[in-house]
Amino acid sequence: MKNYDIVVIGGGPAGLAAAAAAKRNGIEQVLIIERDQRLGGILNQCIHNGFGLHTFKEELTGPEYAQRYIDEIEALKVEYRLNTMVIDINEDKMITIMNAQDGVVVIQAQAVILAMGCRERPRGALNIPGYRPAGIFTAGTVQRLVNIEGFMPGREMVILGSGDIGLIMARRLTLEGAHVNVVCEIMPYSGGLKRNIVQCLDDYNIPLKLSHTVVDIKGRERVEGITIAAVDHNRKPIKGTEKHYPCDTLLLSVGLIPENELSTNMNVIIDSSTNGPVVNECFETNIDGVFACGNVLHVHDLVDYVSQESEVAGKNAAEYVKGRSIARNEKFSIEVQAQEGIVYTVPKTIQPNRMEAEQIIRFRVGDVYQDHYISVYLNGQRVIHQKKRLMAPGEMEQITLQKSDLMAHKQCQMIGIKVEKEVLRS
After folding, report:
1. What is the pLDDT of residue 125?
2. Is residue 211 within 8 Å of residue 231, measured between CB atoms?
3. Which of 6, 84, 351, 378 is close enough to 99 for a disulfide, judged by CB 3.0 to 4.6 Å?
4. CA triplet 268, 14, 145: central angle to 5 degrees?
5. Is 273 helix (H, G, I), strand (E, B) or coil?
6. Which is nearest to 383 in space by CA: 353, 363, 359?
7. Nearest 5 degrees, angle CA 421-CA 280-CA 337?
8. Between the CA of residue 159 and those of 104, 175, 186, 208, 309, what are the distances in Å?
9. Under DSSP, is residue 45 helix (H, G, I), strand (E, B) or coil?
């Protein structure tokens, strides 16, 4: 058995940022465990630009963004193991790993940072009628095939779902010579960023059909065509609205699921709204010394936010190992409630005496709102009332709480965040 101060599970953008932050904050024995053959995670296949505007104040591709952190990891001499699978973690932070060189190894950590990322929702979760022909891929799989393997999966495409990966691949496949017939989305709004709709669909005259879904897949050996139809407010297909598209490939961009099998096995409490761990202001789970960050915590649309949260998690894990963190006391923790129009918040609880001078709370809304307000209430008293021109589920929102406000409300037991229509009062 080998001992480490902090073990980071996952070598993607979250794991890299967390490990670097832990090392910068005085922790010598930091280990990153990554199951792939290289560090960088999903960013290695994201060759489009648009990364790094918040973190590095310049526009980078995914591999360039990842390399900035990989270079820092190398400079800090952070240890990492590639091609290594984590088999099990228990509540005592004993980690069982396996790789071809070492076989099965048990590691004891003082603190663990969960940064396993997320996976795509497959066809099996959608209940689409039809056979199981070749030519049905998740958008992320196609992204890897085209950008890393140099393989085109088809020439005539239909994309189901308007998540960011699907939108980006609509443009990428068009640039590679394929024809994207249509992108259809079952919801009445897109699941991706507005800028991706404009840059990846509108700029290439690719139609986006909202409130539409795939109702049939033709073909036995290979996809021969896709039928889509409009759906009603219950998301049920409307008869008579069917339209058939001859094609050889169907891409699925229908959501991401945080990879939390290891988390649940060690009895980390999972938030049903995010499918990620419930964390406090330190990004610490219900288990002392176990932290979570990145897409394993909640699915992000900007990697810059992943890095910001992960650096906070890494810093707090370092404080925990050094014994400098203020003791957690549920008696003094304040619940952060997602109220009208809000789907979830991260973090879920805040202990004011442990937080920094400012605390960012990130969240998503449940519908499209124009000219509404985000309001924050402390025990029913409104302390924040910010107007937002447009809010949509596909774009993460955030507000900043001041420690001084929370400390001034000594008896505060609940922080409520909601969407409001009312006019701003003078």
Report:
1. 66
2. yes
3. 84
4. 110
5. coil
6. 359
7. 25
8. 41, 16, 12, 10, 31
9. helix
Q: How far apart are the C-alpha atoms of 33 and 252, rounded to whole Å?
A: 29
CA 283 to CA 144: how far, in whole Å? Answer: 31
Q: Any idea what the Cα angle at residue 251 is, between residues 249 and 257, rounded to 5°? A: 155
Tell which phi-psi region holds residue 275, choosing left (phi > 0), alpha (psi between -120 and 50) or beta. left
State the CB neighbour count (10 A cutoff) for residue 328: 16
Contact 252, 136 (CB under 8 A): yes
User: What's residue 137's pLDDT?
Assistant: 95
* The one-letter amino acid at 375: S
Q: How far apart are CA 84 and CA 7, in angstroms?
A: 13
**DSSP string spanning 80-109?**
EESS-EEEEE-TT-EEEEEETTTEEEEEEE
Other beta carbons within 10 Å of 343: 14
Domains of the chain: 1-120+256-325 (3.50.50.60), 122-254 (3.50.50.60), 328-426 (no CATH)
Identify the three-state secondary structure at position 75: helix
User: How distant is the alpha carbon of residue 245 from its chain centre?
Assistant: 32
Question: What residues of the chain score a pLDDT lower than 50?
Answer: 424-426
Give me the helices (H) in 77-215, please: 139-144, 164-175, 194-196
Query: 18 — alpha (psi -120 to 50), left (phi > 0) or beta?
Result: alpha
Distance between CA atoms of 406 and 404, rounded to whole angstroms?
6
> Helix, strand, or coil here: 153?
coil
- The pLDDT of residue 424 is 42
* Side chain identity, residue 289: G
Which one, of 3, 68, 64, lies nearest residue 30 by Cα? 3
Tens digits of residue pLDDT in 6-55: 999 999 999 999 999 999 999 999 999 999 999 999 999 999 999 999 99
**Reduced to 3 states, what is the DSSP secondary structure of residue 400?**
strand
Whole-number Å distance between alpha carbons of 314 and 327: 17
Q: Is 338 exposed, middle or buried (0-12, 13-18, 19+ CB in 10 A)?
A: buried
Q: Is the peptide bond prior to 63 cis by the omega test (within 30 degrees of 0)?
A: no
Residue 347: is the preceding peptide bond cis (ω within 30°)? yes
CA distance 51 to 302: 8
- DSSP codes joined into one string, 234-262: TSPBPTT--EEEE-SEEEE---EEE--HH
Q: How far apart are CA 156 and CA 174, in angstroms?
A: 10
